[in-house]
Write a structure and sequence with these properties.
alpha/beta; Spore Coat Polysaccharide Biosynthesis Protein SpsA, Chain A; eight-stranded mixed sheet; two-stranded antiparallel ribbon; globular
């Protein structure tokens, strides 16, 4: 099940792509929704493959779509496709690149829904892990005022946003750290860094990218369509 992209690369990228995308409305699984005439997953894999450090890409696809996803991605890049789970955590655990003996020691987990993520961000996260950080996340400052709201939709207070960050992917880890965090996980989280935090491992932040937006709602898809149309 080996599919090498760059033999000199030292990074494996795991792409959980089995989610239904309920908030995006009825239709195909989210990773297979079209953006500019191509599935989100194709855009995501193309940008991952453009990052020089990437050695291996493992995609966890909807179980019923594994063969179709293999055919879809074959012209894009060498990719290992495995059946994903019902939850993100199960999809990451299903990806053999995370635990393969002799595989890359740097592992990135990246949302297929962040289809326009620049290769430069992938390199930035990988570089921070390579520099010695065991867990790395790309973040953006929170620009909106944040309120804590209680029962009856009554404001309890205003949160100091100066210490808040919006988290993106790819999230990067030493392979042993990610493996241990998933082995110890007792509940399902949508954020792999959250599992690592529970193990007491410091998580380092690097600047994120406005282009790494997550396509979750129809508005996000429209915004991504615009960015693609203007050349991103």
């Amino acid at each position: 099940m080996t599919a090498q992209l760059n033999p000199r690369g030292d990074v494996a990228v795991l792409v959980p792509a089995a989610g239904a995308g309920v908030r995006l409305g009825p239709g195909a699984p989210k990773a297979l929704r079209l953006l500019g005439g191509e599935p989100l997953l194709v855009h995501a894999v193309r940008r991952i493959a453009a990052a020089p450090s990437v050695h291996t890409i493992v995609v966890a696809a909807p179980a019923a779509e594994v063969d179709a996803v293999r055919r879809l991605l074959a012209p894009v890049a060498p990719v290992v496709v495995v059946p994903g789970g019902a939850e993100r955590q199960a999809s990451v655990a299903a990806a053999p690149g995370r635990r393969a003996t002799g595989g890359p020691d740097i592992v990135l987990v990246h949302d297929a829904a962040r289809a326009l993520t620049p290769p430069e961000l992938i390199e930035s996260v990988a570089g921070a892990v390579r520099a010695g950080h065991h867990a790395v996340i790309p973040v953006l400052p929170v620009v909106d005022t944040i309120k804590e709201v209680g029962a009856g939709e009554v404001v309890l207070g205003t949160v100091d946003r100066s210490a808040l960050r919006a988290v993106q992917t790819p999230q990067g880890f030493r392979r042993s750290v990610l493996t241990a965090a998933h082995a110890a996980a007792g509940d399902s989280l949508t954020d792999d860094a959250g599992l690592v935090e529970k193990q007491g491992v410091p998580v380092f932040c690097v600047p994120g990218s406005e282009y790494a937006l997550k396509v979750t709602r129809p508005f996000d898809l429209a915004l991504a369509e615009h960015l693609l149309a203007v050349g991103h």
